[in-house]
Specification:
mainly alpha
Length: about 170
């Protein structure tokens, strides 16, 4: 279908099928508007916050003591719901936990540091002790083998072996 264009105006770039990125689904938008209209403009998150969180007024009533304000709110909620204060406290805790990801998002993982600073390798060497000690005499096969818990989660090194000590020479100087 050819659309007429205005002189000096480039036609809009054609995008692929479907909604543009970031746009909401029509049904989701309709549901959001319905919920806000039916419940005094409050979203479920705002209603959860009213249950779970202490307001500034409630905090002032308890002279700034947050724990006392939370306990007082739990008692009032329990009275309204006809349940134990402990159950109301747990309900408040659950609502706070549900709100947490929206308030305090997880941080992105830390970027890798410069590759120049390699971590020191970890080396585990099983060295038998002298015969007759707690390590045993070495006569039983596997007596000096490395314990399994030291082998678990140990990465295998692909590095070439290298000499870790310097040869002794009398010609140093």
């Amino acid at each position: 279908m050819n659309m007429p264009t205005l002189p000096g105006v480039a036609p809009a770039a054609r995008r692929g099928p479907g909604r543009p990125k970031g746009s909401t689904n029509k049904r989701s938008g309709d549901l959001q508007r319905y919920v806000e209209a039916q419940f005094n403009g409050l979203t479920p998150g705002q209603q959860s916050a009213q249950i779970a969180l202490v307001t500034a007024k409630e905090l002032r009533a308890c002279n700034g003591d947050l724990l006392s304000a939370m306990a007082l709110k739990a008692k009032e909620l329990a009275r309204l719901l006809g349940c134990e204060a402990k159950e109301a406290w747990l309900l408040m805790q659950r609502e706070r936990a549900d709100l947490l990801p929206y308030i305090h998002q997880k941080r992105a993982p830390k970027a890798e540091e410069d590759g120049d600073q390699e971590k020191a390798p970890h080396v585990i060497i099983g060295v038998p002790m002298e015969a007759g000690t707690a390590a045993g005499s070495g006569e039983i096969p596997g007596e000096w083998d490395t314990p399994q818990d030291l082998l678990d989660y140990q990465p295998v090194s692909d590095d070439e072996p290298e000499q870790v000590t310097q040869p002794k020479s009398h010609a140093q100087g």
